[in-house]
Amino acid sequence: MTDTIPQDTVHRAERRSRRLVLAGFGAAAVGGLAAAVATAAPANAATGSDARNAASVATVSALASLTAKADDMVAVSGYAHPGDGGGGLFRCITADQPAVNGGTVVPGRSGAVWARVHSGTIDFRAFGIFGPETPADEALDALVADQAVVRIEAHTDLNFVRRHKFSRSGIAFDFGGRLMTTEGIEKAGKDDPFAAVMYFCGEVTAEEHTAALGEGVPDLADVLPVGDSSFFAVGEWYAAEVNALSGRWERELQKLVQVTQIVDGSHVRINYQIGWPLGADRSITWRHVKPVQNVVVSNLRFQGKGTDEYTGSHPLAFEYAVRCDVDHIDGTATFWPLIMRRWNTSYTTESCSLKNPTSVTWGGAGYMTQQIYCLYGYVANSRTSNARHLNDFTASAYCLVENCHGDGDDQGPFVTHGQYEHDLTYVGNSGLMTFANSGAPWGSAAKRITVRKHVCSWFVARVKVTDLTLEDVRVIGKKGLNGSGMLWINADGAQLRGCSATDTLIITQSSSASKRPTVIEASDFAFAAAGDLTNASVSAPVTFVDTVLSGVNGVRIGGAGPVTFRGGRLSGGDRDAAFGTLSARLRLDGVDLDGVRIDAAGKDAQAVEILGGSALATTKGTGLSRSGAGDLTVVLGDSTFTGGGTYVSIGAGVNHYRATGCRFDGGALELPAQGFGAKSTLLHSGNVETGLKRTVPAEAANVVLSGNVVV
């Protein structure tokens, strides 16, 4: 009997392809002959002596006329010609013959067949395929169907005219850098991105179980209520899907998971810590799945054919798959994603590329890899040119993308749909990036996404992206791309360090799920045009630490949420408009303010605080003024005001002004009486003034001007 491949011998993609051959085949095995040779000499017992003592013929076709008895061995020099690579050692079978397939089993004389003796590795030349002139479809089907074949190699270019669906596990393909084409391939069905040349799909059984949770399930839970745990078995795989929320595809849980423990009669533990809390009123449907496992596809060049969903072609698709890896797949002119995945768990995609897909506007087309309901994925060292997306995650989690780069990237190499993705990490990549941007039907939500050392022309995480972490993300505007140079985040636990954008920073708020503050540290941003720094949606506090903002005049803090600058520098730039603020509290602590003209423009109560060694340099215009109708509190403390302009001008409304411990060199303070009526207060004391021109009301119970050093 042919041995099977123990799962515990499986390694990562870069080590696996050849080791799969050795995992269960220490000696030679006859392809597809487990039943035929059960009573004969061991099928996998061919030795070097067998080969030396065997008869020989020139070609495979010569076997058909050769007189032989059962178990005779014949060495064949070639398939069509001696030395063409299609020869090998064959054994004669005269009883219970397997079906002839033209490669591993070929016809003999008087009803006998000849079975190719091999160690688990076969290439297409064994079927007489020596190039793309002969379609390789029949050979591919025969090789994949033969459980004794664990490694398939290509030594010539190949052409395929059919779209193949396989459920085979434990097999590796090494195309040797040869070209795969699809000249004359059959049409695909409508809107079917799984109509690949090779589509590996597990079996979804009829066994299904749905149960209401009946209890709240917290974030990061791996023990889930299932109603009746007798439906489950440890080690088995299940497609777990929570019932939808309001959106058509809005589900927090859609993953292919393995049960690792039966906890009790109503709970099981799975190999996944969920990323979103689930309420007691929710329910989960579990479908028993027999996934394809341990498939490796390597070293393939692919030239697509066709320009639409029916005629387009692509090489690979995986669905309900575990540990199915690809590496060194280089595609050109595909329609659907070069590598399509759905319901995949624990996989790698490495050193792949896509150039010039035939469409970047059709929904779902033009991707290098699309990953839907995927878990524990690793995508690395890959590239795209003029593609739509290099890497797309939908409802996926715990994945890492590193050293991937997209040029001609206006469509966005790195994206997520926003169907509750979580715990995704990107390191050392380049190309336009957007998260959770596909719309409300998917939920528009993602959480705990981390991006490090990324360079792009556009970065957007504007919707319900919670606990975003950006480190050393550089956004550089590109001529001709509308909106480039922009970094746009959601003020829900976002934390940025060492980041920059050449054209604008936009902060909006679509969610409030995080418990951590929104902090931007050691970063720099420029504003090429007037616009909002925060808009009216922002109610959460936003803090800038040691950060540089350039060209802020004409920019507005449009949200009521508190905004704090601690350290760093703000420069006004060339625009004459003010740096408007509607924030309930704008605090500048130890900040250099160069030519910045702050205008408190809110209709509700506001506070503006300039403290902690801040330095405001004003040469023209007014450093701080008001145009809003709300009560205004101004606090100036331990700061320096220079430049000769008007530092503060408050002439209307209800105001509470306090300046202590400050130095004013030249310039002017305009605090006229009409701005400090009975409901207002003014304390200007303990300051040092050199050549300062004051316009102030007379001292009164609510106006104190004494105790200053005036030079």
From TrEMBL:
The keyword Transmembrane applies. Keywords: Membrane, Transmembrane, Transmembrane helix. It comes from the Bacteria. The chain crosses the membrane at residues 20-41. InterPro entries: TAT_signal (IPR006311). This is Peptidase C14.
